[in-house]
Specification:
33% of the residues lie in helices and 21% in strands. By secondary structure, the chain is an alpha/beta fold. The protein has two domains: 65-280, Rossmann fold; 302-413, Rossmann fold (3-Layer(aba) Sandwich), CATH 3.40.50.720. The longest helix has 27 residues, at 282-308.
Length: 417
């Protein structure tokens, strides 16, 4: 259990949401291991009164969480599209050109690397998940199966030179070696390079009640103010902060050495907005916690109603955030007897803690309703399963407020092309 802040090392951590002891949400259970009890770890969200960083106070070893990682970027078309759009935007904004060098930290299966490669830009991926690094290398996308830190940064500089751009999408909240990584990036970008951090935005997370984004992989939850508290220690500063819709609401921070880039209006506007939203005050987080338990009550009422009516409910998808929701709310196979997935790395296994079996979505007859655990991809899922909804199926969506989507109201949630 940590007693000091991950960012500023201060000792004023205030607990505001205790989700109990839970297994690591991505440690899916093989049938042969069902008789064993998997390790459980505290899952508690705290607020640093000194630097305002929200964080969890227990660290599961990164080797447990990431060496065999089951989240694969390329399985979601909306994420592929997001990376394609990000590549075009960053090339234009940063004036990148053919032959420039981009390093992607936490590069997963190489989905974003592939977008860069198509433009003639030189790439290197770094990812501690050996299984995913192998997939990327097999695609011809050079990926080092290592956890990025200052030592790895020095190796890259020695072998390939400084990077024009370092990208870290959905990575900066995972970092156990937060300070070593930040120092390494500061060295890797030299005096002229840029770091692009894409991270789930705490302000949006509070607004849409995404408490299920709290899990053991997410050690820190960023606002502009809190990430600036970290970057300032390494002569780095944010020069652009733009909202991007991926993962239910994220921010793309563009970061460089202090004084080397003009500070965008977006940065000053975001500072002002964070102050208006009281993101630097403990009270807002305590309100978030009380609303979380209200969601539990409302969701359980819906699931129990479906069960009473003799209707079968399966979980649609088995994302790690779903493990947080199911384990926090005590939703097991009595209410949700199965989950369906398209990710072959999860099919045939069981969701940790609640022990719900994961079936192949393509081979499983649809139930009366799906509990949508991957709610951040709701428009894509509605489009994909429109026929199911029209024929009487239903989606139970837990976030931001538990509700049922069926043929009578689904059009309200479909993004018109």
């Amino acid at each position: 259990m940590r007693m000091t802040c991950r960012v500023c090392n201060g000792k004023n951590l205030a607990l505001f949401l205790d989700l109990g002891n839970q297994p690591h949400g991505d440690s899916f259970i093989a049938p042969k291991d069902l008789k064993k009890r998997e390790p459980h770890y505290p899952l508690r969200a705290c607020f640093c009164v000194d630097c305002t960083t929200v964080q969890i106070d227990h660290t599961v070893p990164k080797e447990v969480m990431f060496e065999e990682y089951l989240y694969v970027s390329g399985t979601t078309r909306s994420l592929e599209k997001h990376f394609e759009e990000s590549t075009k935007r960053l090339i234009k904004k940063l004036k990148l050109k053919k032959g420039d060098f981009v390093v992607d930290i936490g590069s997963n299966d190489g989905t974003w690397l592939d977008c860069w490669r198509c433009t003639g830009i030189q790439t290197l991926g770094v990812d501690g998940a050996k299984n995913l690094a192998k997939i990327a290398n097999e695609k011809g996308l050079e990926t080092w199966p290592k956890f990025f830190n200052e030592k790895v940064a020095k190796e890259i500089i020695k072998k390939k030179g400084h990077a024009n751009l370092v990208t870290a999408a959905g990575v900066f909240f995972h970092l156990e070696e937060l300070h070593s990584v930040t120092e390494g990036v500061a060295e890797l970008i030299g005096e002229k390079g840029v770091l692009c951090v894409q991270a789930i935005y705490l302000g949006q997370m509070l607004q849409i009640m995404a408490f299920d984004q709290i899990y053991h992989e997410h050690l820190t939850y960023w606002t502009l103010r809190s990430i600036e508290a970290l970057l300032g220690q390494y002569n780095l500063e944010v020069f652009s902060a733009e909202f991007i819709p991926i993962h239910g609401g994220s921010i793309e921070y563009l970061i460089a050495k202090k004084g080397t880039r003009k500070i965008s209006k977006s940065v000053t506007e975001m500072r002002k907005r964070e102050k208006e939203l009281h993101l630097g005050e403990l009270a807002i987080y305590r309100t978030f916690a009380s609303r979380t338990w209200k969601i539990k009550k409302e969701l359980l009422l819906i699931l129990e109603r479906f069960k009473k009516e003799g209707k079968k409910v399966y979980a649609l998808g088995a994302p790690i955030k779903g493990s947080t929701l199911l384990n926090s709310f005590g939703i097991g196979s009595d209410l949700v007897p199965a989950a369906v997935e398209v990710n072959h790395l999860k099919i045939g296994k069981y969701i940790p803690g609640v022990r719900i079996p994961i079936l192949d979505e393509k081979k499983t007859p649809p139930p009366d309703a799906y509990l949508v655990l991957a709610w951040n991809f709701l428009p894509e899922l509605l489009q994909k399963m429109e026929a199911y909804i029209k024929n009487g199926g239903a989606f139970i969506v837990p976030i931001p407020k538990p509700m049922v989507i069926d043929k009578n109201n689904y059009q309200e949630f479909v993004i018109k092309s």
